[in-house]
Amino acid sequence: MSSHPGFGAHTDPTFKSRPRPTGEVVRRVGVYLKPYWVMAFGTVTCAILSLGFGLLYPKLTRTIIDTVINQSREDLLLPAAWGLIGAFLFRELFNSLRILINNHLEQNVIFDMRRDVFARLQRLPVPWFDQRASGDLMTRVIEDVNNVERMLIDGVEQGTVALLSIVGALVFMVIYSPMLAAVSLIPIPFLIAGALWYTLTAHRRYRKQREAASAMNALLMDNLQGIRQIKAFGRQEHEDQRFAGRADDLRQGTLIVMRAWAAYGPAMQFVGALGIGLVLAVGGHEVLRGRMEVGQLVAFMLYAGMFFYEPIGRLHGLNQMVQAARAAAARVFDILDADEERADRTELLKRPVRGAVDYQDVEFSYGEGQTVLNRIQLHAEPGQMIALVGPTGAGKSTLVNLLPAFYEPTHGRISIDGQDLRTITLGSLRDQISVVSQEAFLFNGSIRENIGYGRLEASEEEMMAAARAANCHDFIVKLPNGYDSHVGERGIKLSVGEKQRVSIARALLKNAPILILDEATASVDTATERLIQEALERLMAGRTSFVIAHRLSTIVKADQILVLLHGEIVERGTHEELLARDGLYAKLARIQNTTFIEESFERLALP
User: Does the pLDDT of residue 275 top 90, yes or no?
Assistant: First the structure.
């Protein structure tokens, strides 16, 4: 179905997965069975024992018909009946035990695989996430992992039992009648041909279905996060149409899979039934000619139906599951195979960290023809405040994002206390940097948990001291549950100013010597701005701070002000020095009153 106009109409919210050979999928997924080989062995053993008792049913049925009934051996009726009941009882007891062990095995494997996928996501570089939709990643972690596990557990177990059923039944069938056994094999080539066709054509259909599911989930997550904007602009009907488009893509993809299965499944069942019909016709002829007993034919039919053609049909269903799992596995392996953030850094950031920062001829590009920073030179002494001003798209955020190595420079060198960032382990680097963004992000938990995120081992007293320094203790204790009050998704239960002060408390608790601050007072009232500004002054005290400024009034005390334009530093100096030069910054200062810096740049009509 064609894309509906709107967000994502010309972009793919999912990233394509390369097909993986079945052998690779089985080998890699099989690794997760190794820690639980005892459970896997127990599951298969119980399945085999259940099958073994099931194989007694046709044999006992023949005894009842040919011996008890035909020969009037009433003395054997009760033992044969009890034997039949016992066979059914033990078959189901072992089947119940198999289900119990299998469920534990499944959940352990799902846990391990899902944890590995999530752990890899935590270690992937920021640019990797820039190109992926969150809803798509959620689908891979939750749904696709389940589908992969089904192939691993159900596939191994059902495949093993089905093959053993076929072998066991065929042995009894040959013993009872080699000629009928040969007749029963006539449909096999057709069954194999059907399975081969389905296997070779299924992966493309299942991959399309999984991608459609991811696209729908990505849109759903986007809508849930933007529900207030949707309502504010009255776009519910528009979003209904967008979701209907994605849901229809999934419907069409699923129907394509089901149409193929609707042709394949019944066709294979018909071929199997044809085999039963052939056996019944030939066997009936043998009985009529006196060359075969009725009970023998009935037992043969039971083996052919329950333990031969039925397992073959189960293998066809298993084939469908395997093809779905292959598509899901390819999507899971795309995450597990993605390159982690640079792991070849071997040096720890030397302690104690003074906070001297140097950018030496730094350049950065997102891709060909997308240069964002060009020949950046700056030096920050420990404890200095470096302010960055410039229009939207000038490269301010990119410049500070290079410091915690969210992105890697395409040229040049960045160092802290003389140590090149390219050699410093990411953990030791980021331990020494705190980030407070303009739009404060809070996790869906309690205020205590959100502040404590800055330093998990901090004491209650240290956490509250950080809250007081961030001017948020007073409003927190007035909440019904105090520090245990939940903030809701993305902190929705708190005001903008309250969220910002909680995020400042989190940064204070971390107590890192280097601070990155995307000015936090741009969207609050005057009273709240004063409280936040006081908290920020405490936060920046004694720290090397990089501040992306939205109002000039907040940076007049900066040790250095860098004016960025088109990815280059065009002016630098203190507030007074830049005013005295009467350049771009001075012009900006003259026209700015209550407007933000970005708006003032627009008024300057710069090229």
Answer: no
